[in-house]
Design a protein that fits this description.
Number of strands: 33
Shape: elongated
Largest sheet: 8 strands, mixed
Strand order of the largest sheet: 12-22-21-14-15-16-17-13
CATH topology of the largest domain: TIM Barrel
CATH class of the largest domain: Alpha Beta
CATH architecture of the largest domain: Alpha-Beta Barrel
Helix content: 40-55%
């Protein structure tokens, strides 16, 4: 078998054949997904493994590109407008223009000649004839891009059906119901997908015939219905569900009559909306191929590619797979299903899936019928079940991942229709990656590369608070994890509209369709009343990390009334609901949530990642609680502790304001000393939480005006107090009051007048570039002196308690090395020296490291480093000089980005930045992902210059970019030593840093011909 897997398909393709655009499943190189698409690749792979795959061939992505080619530039321009996410009316107009262009295109020259040749090969292989009523060959025409885009593009099944074929198929199969069900399905799919007739037209017909069948069953066939209910739990009369003929002959006959009538109605509908239905199978095939090509440009596919950052380099156009039809709807010895080689929700190594007897594949994924568990197949057809499981494990080992396999059983015979890497919950993705590595299927490096950092982030979803007194009103299937609350909406366009206005929404549908995908991204979560774990809603929600509950069948969804009803509860659009995608429960209103627990496999995976990464990972933390969380998540220290966060308590803010409003050093020192005493316990708490790990403490950085009331606020108080004072002074009441009361008013007025004068004097036109950071330390050395005292006293307190504090003091907003020299000599070093002397310690400069200070007493010893935050452009340009005066750099990329782009973050993100992103002027939000060409160039050069000047220099980054995986990859390549992220992104950063190192290793490894 291993020899079979290593077939050189290129050699086969080199054989003289007249084919340019098509390749059979036996010939295709299944490794070439960009040519064959994912579905075509999987069909070729399974065929070449010897698995039972219906014969077929692939029309490659080259044909699709050639089809679109003549007007591709025009189409791409319209797609660019669609990617701006315009309002629905404009979106629909753009789609209409795109499809008008595509519908005017002709298939590439020679393509249909090739297709005819390939179909004749299928006729020879199967012994059937395309369009031959006596022994008809029916085809499925299926899309398939290089990357999995579940449900985003189109498929047409049962192609080749016409009036004569339907009669012939009925006679050949001995089953009229099957033949006319296949015809009914084909007309509906062909009408919707190929002829572009609206869904609602077909849905209305389906509803009409369902109601007719239910009425007949309950009245004329009540005895048969009762027998079916006892023998087949879950059965209900539906036009798309064949009643067993032997158990319910009357109902079966009624169903056949209704299906014949429905087929006639469907042809009439098509004739009224499009024109006479094409009876010629070759014409059907040509139109279907064109429709599948067109589906590459349908709005849901465009939106999916945009949301998942799928570029043309990753997947450009779709292939078309033409496959011999096999029928799961032939009878109750047939069926269709989906098999996951491991549980996609938990990652447990057990077969998992769903099976639906007497059905075709779209019945499962569309959620129109709720399927049974895979155990049902095991009970009904144990040999088929065993064959399925064995093949699934072979595919798992070959593809080195958990597989999602579509299959059909036709009269007891198993057929494989597709395999692909399974979409899993975050927990399952992590667990299976670790398990596969432990089983020797993949390496530990592979396991780390299989788990995207966003998966780790999604793993940290909240769950329902166990102490919450909430009772669910409904239960469904736990399709995608996480607990979330939102306002109910019923239409994806409404979800987008409400989300844009800042509202949190839950999209509620009976079942979802691919056209709903834009609503998925806008919603906080998804709830459906129908569907299983492999339904469209479940698969897409898992893929994009949205909590979802599906198949909550007790819920009645009323689109017209815009409400859901369950039991005695009614919830309307706009009402709040909470869904628990981990437990499958639905709650009315908002229910409290708690943070998740970390699964053991994540700890294992991250321990492997730690062994591969070069970058250290620290956390940004301001309070001991943050530090404890960071350490729990594997932070190797604190990369940024912002002192100013400690001043927000009212009593501290009052003292700080006295410091800022004072008019001279003498007046300022006493409140500074008090403030130092107040924040000393905070330093001690964080240093204690990170005992033995470095803690970078940034001296005060923000503009001082942020801690003061605004001039407008003070002026308003002044006017109100003055008005009250004047009214009281001139009143009769004043003559009877104590003079002290009037004096208190006068003192209050004087205080407010002085405050207004000082606040006005301190007001700056551009405070972010004004009196802040090191400039405060330069103009008032006492400020940095007393802050340093608090840090050193907390450090020595811990030393005397037997702890191991490791302090790094960071000077912010530096633009010149002279600023560092000044604040070190006037503030930092004097404070360190005096505190050490007061406590009986020695303070010495390190003989081996710049700006490192050794504090010791007997056997007790610690080292304090002094460094700088590099966040001004001039600091990056003079990095070689600055590095001679510090022990470390830490890039403040938030401010550095603002300075480099001349963007005020608070202003641009609410004004023009969205437009810049929409127009493609900027590819990414530069405050979320590092601007490599601009800011990144400064970071790279400053790192290189600094380390050349000071080889012992440690370089990190503590801006928001420290938790962004794409930015982390850049920081790795730029030669930084560590990144610092928020506590809840520490694990993301650890994994991203490891993946960056592994990618670099893969790029630098010698290429070996295989």
């Amino acid at each position: 078998m291993e020899l079979l897997y290593s077939i050189n398909a290129e050699g086969l393709m080199a054989m003289a054949r007249p084919y340019k655009y098509t390749v059979s499943f036996r010939e295709g190189d299944w490794r070439d997904k960009k040519l064959l698409g994912g579905k075509g690749s999987s069909l070729a792979q399974m065929t070449q493994m010897g698995l039972p795959v219906p014969p077929g061939f692939t029309i490659t992505t080259v044909a699709c590109r050639d089809f679109l080619g003549p007007r591709r530039a025009e189409i791409d321009q319209l797609v660019g407008e669609l990617e701006k996410n315009p309002p629905p009316s404009i979106r629909d107009e753009l789609i209409s223009k795109i499809w008008s262009i595509i519908n005017s295109q002709e298939l590439p020259d020679g393509l249909m000649d090739e297709v005819r040749g390939r179909v004749h090969e299928l006729e020879a292989e199967t012994g059937k004839g395309f369009g031959n009523p006596a022994n008809p060959l029916l085809l499925s025409v299926r899309s398939g891009a290089a990357l999995s885009m579940p449900g985003m593009m189109d498929t047409v099944l049962n192609l080749g059906m016409n009036d004569a074929v339907a009669e012939g198929l009925a006679e050949l199969a001995g089953n009229e119901w099957f033949a006319y069900d296949a015809y009914r399905r084909f007309l509906q799919m062909f009408g919707r997908i190929v002829l572009e007739i609206e869904d609602k037209e077909f849905d209305a017909l389906t509803s009409k015939y369902n109601e007719r069948l239910k009425s007949i069953a309950s009245s004329a066939r009540a005895d048969e219905l009762s027998r079916l209910a006892s023998e087949l739990p879950g059965y209900s009369p539906r036009i798309d569900a064949q009643p067993p003929r032997e158990m319910a002959p009357g109902l079966w006959s009624d169903s056949v009559s209704l299906l014949r009538s429905m087929v006639s109605d469907l042809k009439s509908l098509i004739a009224s909306k499009w024109g006479e239905f094409p009876q010629d199978p070759w014409r059907q095939l040509e139109l279907a191929v064109k429709a599948v090509f067109r589906s590459w440009m349908n709005p849901r596919a465009i939106f999916y590619r945009m949301a998942n950052n799928i570029t043309p380099e990753m997947a450009d156009c779709t292939a078309v797979n033409v496959v011999t039809m096999v029928f799961g709807n032939m009878g109750w010895d047939s069926g269709t299903g989906v098999y996951f080689t491991r549980n996609p929700s938990t990652g447990e190594d057990v077969p998992y899936g769903e099976f639906l007897p007497s059905a075709q594949g779209e019945d499962v994924v569309a959620g129109v019928r709720t399927p049974m568990g895979l155990e049902e197949l095991k009970l009904r057809m144990p040999a088929v079940y065993g064959q399925l499981i064995e093949a699934g494990k072979k595919l798992e080992r070959l593809n080195r991942d958990v597989m999602d396999i579509e299959f059909t059983v036709e009269r007891g015979r198993l057929y494989f229709l597709q395999n692909r890497v399974a979409k899993m919950t975050p927990a399952a993705r992590v667990k299976t990656a670790v398990d596969l590595a432990n089983e020797g299927v993949i390496s530990r490096e592979d396991a780390v590369m299989k788990v995207d950092p966003q998966t780790v982030q999604n793993l940290l979803y909240p769950r329902i608070d166990p102490s919450a007194k909430a009772s669910p009103i409904a239960t469904g299937l736990p399709a995608s994890p996480g607990a979330v609350s939102g306002q109910i909406v019923f239409h994806p366009d409404v979800a987008v509209e409400w989300s844009r206005s800042g509202r949190e929404v839950i999209l509620v549908r009976v079942e979802t369709k691919p056209d709903d995908v834009h609503g998925f991204y806008a919603a906080k979560g998804i709830l459906t009343s129908r569907g299983g774990m492999t339904s469209h809603a479940a698969v897409v929600a898992r893929a994009i990390g949205k909590p979802a509950v599906v198949g909550a069948e007790s819920i009645s969804v009323d689109y017209d009334a815009k409400e859901i009803r369950v039991g005695g509860t009614t919830l309307k659009e706009g009402d709040w609901v909470t869904i628990d995608g981990s437990g499958g429960r639905v709650y009315p209103g908002k229910v409290p949530t708690v943070e998740p627990e970390i699964i053991p496999e994540l700890e294992v995976l991250l321990s492997w990642a730690d062994g591969f990464r070069r970058l250290g990972v620290r956390a940004n933390a301001d309070v001991p609680e943050d530090a404890e969380i960071a350490r729990k998540f594997g932070a190797q220290g604190i990369g940024l502790l912002r002192i100013e966060r400690m001043f927000r308590k009212p009593e501290r803010l009052e003292v700080l304001r006295k410091v800022i409003l004072s008019e001279g050093p003498e007046e300022r020192r006493e409140p500074l000393r008090r403030l130092s005493d107040m924040i000393r316990p905070d330093f001690k708490g964080i240093l204690e939480a990170m005992d033995g790990l470095p803690v970078v403490i940034r001296l005060i950085d923000p503009p001082l005006h942020e801690f003061l009331p605004s001039p407008v606020e003070v002026l308003s108080q002044l006017h109100e107090t003055r008005a009250a004072y004047l009214a009281l002074k001139d009143s009769e009441l004043a003559r009877s009051m104590s003079p002290e009361v009037i004096k208190q008013y006068e003192a209050k007025l004087q205080e407010l007048e002085r405050l207004y004068s000082r606040v006005t004097a301190l007001t700056e036109h551009n405070p972010m570039m004004g009196h802040r950071g090191v400039r405060v330390g330069v103009t008032d050395p006492d400020f940095y002196y007393y802050l340093t005292r608090a840090i050193m006293e907390a450090t020595l307190d811990l030393l005397e308690e037997g702890r191991d504090p490791r302090v790094e003091i960071m000077i912010p907003q530096v633009m010149d090395v002279s600023e560092i020299k000044y604040v070190k000599s006037s503030s930092i070093e004097p404070a360190m020296s005096e505190v050490a002397a007061e406590r009986g310690y020695r303070l010495e400069r390190s003989p081996t490291r710049t700006s490192a200070y050794v504090i010791s007493k007997g056997n007790t010893r610690t080292e304090v480093l002094v460094g700088t935050m590099v966040e001004t452009v001039r600091a990056t340009l003079t990095a070689s000089e600055i590095a001679k005066e510090v022990a470390f750099f830490s890039f403040g990329t938030n401010d550095l980005t603002q300075a480099t782009l001349s963007f005020s973050r608070d202003d641009v993100e609410n004004k023009f930045l969205p437009k810049y992103l929409e127009l493609g002027i900027l590819a990414e939000n530069p405050f979320q992902t590092i601007d490599v060409a601009g800011v990144g160039k400064l970071v790279r050069s400053a790192t290189a210059d600094g380390k050349a000047s000071n080889p012992a220099l440690e370089v990190g980054i503590c801006g928001e970019h420290g938790g962004d995986p794409a930015s982390i990859e850049f920081f790795h390549s730029a030669g930084l030593d560590y990144v610092s992220a928020s506590p809840y992104r520490v694990m993301v950063a650890r994994l991203a840093a490891a993946r960056a190192a592994l990618r670099e290793g893969a790029r630098s490894a010698p290429q070996v011909d295989k």
